[in-house]
Amino acid sequence: INEGDTAYTGACYFLANDIDCEGTQLNVIGDGNTSTSYFSGVFNGNDKTISNYTMQTTDSAYVGFFGWVVADSASSATSAIYNLTLENFSIDASAQEKSMFCGSLIGYSIGATISQCNAYNGTMQINGDDEFSNYAGGLIGLAQATYLQGTQNSYNACVAYCISDVNLIVNTGVVVAGGGLVGYAFSDHQDAVAYIVNCYATGDVEGAIRAGGLLGILGQYTSVSSCYATGDVQAKSTLKDEKYGDLRVAYAGGLVGYGENNSVVADCFAVGKLTEKDFTEQGNGERASDKLVGS
Question: Which residues on adjacent β-strands are paired with residue 289?
Fold first, then answer.
């Protein structure tokens, strides 16, 4: 897959046994190093667990057990990953002169269904570039629904019945969105929807500009329902220059850090402690709130 061989597109995989990696450093599946180095197909985790591993990347845009996951446009089918648990792991991701998408399960998904996938006792350390936008989530960095005008096919993005117990720490770089479960979820067209349902996150989120206990940014044509988050959230922006606009202001939300237009939150709650730190035109300010959605 990482060599860009499209013969694997649309394939189905079945995990037969638990795998104890015994501290092994794993490589990303679908690292995006070529235009076809992605995972596109179905992965059935069979309720098995992959545990005790590390990941360390220094120049990858897509970081996760699966780095880049896309729908199979040839067959009009979404990709799907389900019934998989990741446990006892650490991820140390850094990149320069590029955007980075980082999640324990998936870095960047387009038109994918993720169901009954869990991440327990994980830690993610993010070191991004100061001039590029970066996204990180305890389970998925960025989840996108998309509509292809040429074929008029819609590819929804679904995250359902998932659990994330991952502490997310941003050390450096412009991490625009950081969430306990998903960094950023959105759709690029009203005919395709992104939705998160019946999920929860317990890990802490620290250092993203838009930071939420469950979701960093809830984008357009996207909903989150029947979810909750319990982790503490600290949003932080060190950007000062006016060219960065609203990114100079940090937003923290117990559930969602920042909600865009045409987005919905229903039947959710959050209980974590919130802190916001940023550099505004008035200087260094610190704000705290108990909001469900930061803004």
Answer: none
pTM of the predicted protein model: 0.94
Residue with tokens 């959105």: 186
Residue of 53, 47, 56 whose CA lies nearest to 20: 53
- Judge whether 144 and 110 are in contact, CB under 8 Å: yes
Per residue in 100-123, pLDDT tens? 999 999 999 999 999 999 999 999
In angstroms, the CA 257 to CA 261 distance is 14
Calculate ∠ Cα 99-103-108, nearest 5°: 55
C-alpha 55/C-alpha 24 separation (Å) is 9
Torsion, CA 248, CA 286, CA 180, CA 227, rounded to 10: -110
> For residue 74, with 0-12 CB atoms within 10 Å meaning exposed, 13-18 middle and 19 or more buried, which class applies?
exposed
Closest CA to 266 of 232, 231, 230, 228: 228
Comparing CA positions, the residue from 133, 118, 225 lying closest to residue 180 is 118
Q: At 25, list the tokens.
A: 């450093």
- Asked if residues 26 and 55 have their Cβ atoms less than 8 Å apart, the reply is yes
278 pLDDT tier (thresholds 50, 70, 90): confident
The two three-digit tokens of residue 112, written as one number: 């994918």
Other CB atoms within a 10 A radius of the CB of residue 93 amount to: 27
Q: What is the largest CA-CA distance in the chain?
A: 58
- Is 179 in a helix, a strand, or coil? strand
159: Cβ contacts below 8 Å, ≥ 6 apart: 114, 115, 139, 140, 143, 181, 182, 185, 195, 196, 197, 199
Supply the Cα-derived Rg of the chain in whole angstroms. 18
136 beta partners: 102, 178
- Say how far apart CA 67 and CA 37 lie, in whole Å: 9
> Alpha carbon 134 to chain centroid distance?
10
More confident call, 134 vs 78: 134
